[in-house]
Amino acid sequence: MLPLLTQGGGAEKYFINLARNFRDRGIEMDVITMNENFFNKFARLLHIFALGNFFGKIDTIGRESEESIKRQLGKARWIKTSYKNLGKGLRNYDIIYAKNELVDLVLLKSKGYKKLPPIIVGVHTPIFYPETKSFISKLHNFLYSSFFYSWLLRGAKRVHVSNSFTENLVNKNFKIKSQLIYYPFSTEKIRQSAQNNKTEINFDSGKKNIIFAGRLSEQKGFDTLVNIIERISKSHGLTEKISLNVFGSGDAECEAKIKNLANKFPFVRYFGHVENKFIPNILVQNNLMIAPSKWETLPYSILEAQALGLPVIAFDIPGPNDIIKDSRTGFLVKTEEDFAGKIKDFAEGKIRLDKSEIVENIEKRFNPEKMYDELLNMFQENLSKAKP
To answer: Is the pLDDT confidence value at 7 over 90?
Structure first.
C-alpha cells in the first residue's frame, strides 16, 4: 500500500494484524509501502489538487510511532521502498495482496501485472460513497465507476470484499470475481489490550459516557457529529445526563470547530488523537459509541466497541449494517433526527441491550481462526491457478 503504516488508519491496522497473524501461522507475510520520499511527494500533489496548497507545510509524520508499529507487526516486516525498486521487491513474493485505491493500483499497473506475482485486490476504501456532498467525494464515485478503474482491476486474480454491498457491486460492475470474507477479529485480544494498556483519562462516572472515535472528516460524519451536538444542546435535561467524549484529529478547521463546541457546551469533551493501543481501555470506560460515518468498508472502530460489549449507533450503510444487529447489538438509523433520538433514549434508560449478546455476535461472525483460514484458502487458490 502507498501510505506509511504510521498513518494509523483502519486499513493500516488491518494490514498489520494480517501480517502478524500469518507470520504466527508460519507463513512469510510482510507489508510493503512506499518510502517517506515518495509519500511526501504524493501528499504534496494531493494537497495541491484538493486544497490548492502549493507551498504550505504538510504534516505527513503520522499518528503512530515506528517503534509501536514494529511491536504490533511481531515477526512480520515493514519494508519501505522507492518506486524504482518496487517491482523488484514485489517479485520476491508468491502473491500480492493490494489495497484497492487508485494510486495503489496505478503503481502496480505501471510495473505490469504480468511481470508481478498474482494480485488479489482488497477493498479497504469503499468503491461507492452512498452520500456525497463535497467535490472530492463526487469525484471519487465518478472515478471508481469509470472504465479507467475497471482497467486497473483487469488482470487481478480476485477482489476481496468485506461487506455484502461491495460484493454485489463488484460482481455487477466489474468483470472480476469477488469474495466476501469479513475481517478476523479477536475479542480475547482486545480485552487483553484494554487491561494492559491503561490510560490516565478520567471520565465522568456520574453520567452516561458516549464516545466518538475517528478522523474529523466528511467520511466519518464530522458534520453530522456537529449537528447532533447542536441538537442535544437544546435539550437541557439531556445535557446533564451525558458526557460526549470526542477522540480523533483532522484538518485545522475541523479541530477548531470541535474545540469551540467543547468550550461552548460542558457536556462535550475533546481529547484529540490518542495512540491506537489505548483505544480499547478508553472504550471500556464508555457506555455507548456513536459512529456517524457516511461511508465505510468494515469499520474497525465498531468492531472494537462491539467486541467490548458497547452498543453502537450508526447510519444504516454498508459496513456498519454488516456488523450491527439492529435493536439487539446497537441501532442503525436513517436520519440525524433518529440519531439524536437514540442517544436521548439511551441516556434516559429507555434502551437496554444485552452486553453478552453484543460480544457473542462478534465472536461468532468474525471468529479470527475461521476468517484467517478463509483468507489463506483464497490466497492458496489463486496461487495454485497462477502456477503450473
So the answer is: no
Does 143 have pLDDT greater than 90?
yes
- Are the beta carbons of 22 and 30 closer than 8 angstroms? no
Interior CA angle at 170 toward 164 and 174, to 5°?
A: 170
Relative to beta strand 158-161, strand 119-122 is parallel
pLDDT digits (tens, 9 = 90+) for 78-100: 999 999 999 999 999 999 999 99
| Domains and their CATH numbers in the chain | 5-186+368-386 (3.40.50.2000), 196-365 (3.40.50.2000)
Query: What is the pTM assigned to this prediction?
Result: 0.90
Helices (H) and strands (E) in the chain, counts: 18, 12
Cell of 376: 489463506
Cα gap 120→22, rounded to integer Å: 16
SS3 state at 104: helix
Say if residues 325 and 361 touch (Cβ distance below 8 Å): yes
Q: Say how far apart CA 366 and CA 336 lie, in whole Å.
A: 29
Specify the DSSP class assigned to residue 211.
E
pLDDT confidence of residue 99: 96
> Degrees (nearest 5) of the Cα angle 164, 147, 106?
85
DSSP symbol at 2: -
Sign of CA dihedral 83, 87, 88, 92: positive
